[in-house]
Amino acid sequence: MPLPDPSWSADDVVAHLRAIGTEANLAGMARFGINTASALGIGNSDLRPLARKLKKNHERSLLLWESGIREARLMAAFTGEPKKVDINQCRRWAANFDSWEIVDTVADLFAETPFWRGLIDEFAEDEREFVRRTAFAMLAWSAVHLKKEPDATFLAYLPLIEKHARDPRNFVRKVVNWALRQIGKRSMSLHAPALALAEKLAASPDPRWVGRDAVKELTDAKQLARLAAART
Fold first, then answer.
1. Contact, 110 vs 138, CB < 8 A?
2. Which among 185, 187, 189 is positioned nearest to 215, based on CA atoms?
3. What's this model's pTM, rounded to 2 decimal places?
4. Best label site of 15, 126, 168, 220, fewest CB within 10 Å?
């Protein structure tokens, strides 16, 4: 089997993926709640190195997505070019989301686009479960990776987190919790307001778990020491 390289077409990538997938991996994925209906049985530990060899390619990324294959769609996210992605592409892809895994992977690509903030606002108000999840996965990723973004950006998202912490769907609640924790761990200036919201949610009857879990992490001694060290 030839080694992958940047010259590979989408068809070449799909053929390679079909050759390396295994039934054993499919069973393991299902145990983690991954939708395996279109899966070939390849873990991310194999997909990510492959993506690095293929490098970024917007046109190929679009074709990989259109294949409908789980692994090809993950490769589309890994090898997409954020500066060439437009908002309508994001909307089209989001309409196809059928698993928390694909959401959390593609959210990284979406969060690198120039219009990521508008997309969060739009997707958060979308009633589709995995589209709403995308908004908060983007928010969590951005809080960690967009180092130059001012803290005020993330402070302004706390009301959105509070609003959707009450979403009854598990895949939404979990990602809202994730976003709250990542904002609270971003800096000491964000820690206090994020913790205050976590405590408020923990004291309310409906989204209690979202708040309690966030309080636990945001009051952890190691997290507090890391934030204090980062401030000095």
1. yes
2. 185
3. 0.94
4. 168
